[in-house]
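Researcher: Please predict.
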Amino acid sequence: MIRSVVRGTGQALPRRIMKNADFEGMVETSDEWIVQRTGIRQRHIASDDETTASLGEAAARAALANGGLTPDDIDLIVLATSTPNNTFPATAVEIQQRLGMRHGYAFDMQAVCSGFVYAVTTADAYIRAGLAKRVLVIGSETFSRILDWNDRSTCVLFGDGAGALVLEATEGAGTIADRGVLAASLRSDGTHKEKLYVDGGPSTTGTVGHLRMEGREVFKHAVGMITDVIEATFSQAGITAEDLDWFVPHQANKRIIDASAKKLGIAEEKVVITVDKHGNTSAASVPLALSIAAVDGRIKRGDLVLLEAMGGGFTWGAVLVRW
């Protein structure tokens, strides 16, 4: 059977680093308060000349170089983002243009923080259907553009960045030993919209709006939803937490990550953590963490890797990949 195998990974971060202490003159908060409740110590904030498209392009070029590929080798670009450069066209098309691609096709996917997990699952479906041989999957965000910098409950949580990977069609035996995407589970529940959303949009207010979140409500639902979808993915693949080599979760809050790993029985040393350095970069958080762990040598060929995310909507999902 056809498997979607990871050929290369890449990342990009804005130049400016904003540490927790930088917020102390802006809102009523402190480094100790932020670290204790979230695990975040710093985040990257995009400058005026850094956009979702430019960061996505940089991550894409890094992933192509890592895989020994060029834009000519790519058939499809799927960009996960909630902060596009324009309402339309899709920012994926702008990245396509920036890469010099005049062939193939490109589109955006919007599932907020779950976007990259949704995008990988979508890219895998296109590959298995024979609609593409190589897909560039990108998560890129500039959440700093939609933050209310007077709201201390949200402005300290988010950062900007991008991550990417290339998936390539490869023949597999159809067993758990195959390399590539092995199983996936996606969920959504629109009844939770008001718990995490942006209070603007073209069809409602005609404005971009600001991010709004009921933090306690999100936290309350997160662990249960995450463990549910991961257990469904384990069931599909016929594995348990003990079989995993690495767990790469959405980097939103270290307390949520720790609680989820503990509930699932995933050993602490198998969890990739980058939230302390990047904050919550929404759809970029999973590919950023994935790229860092692959580049520094932690994730090796043959490793069994679980990706997971939850975002506004709510949306949530998990993907199991053999590296």
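Model: The first strand starts at residue 2 and ends at 12.
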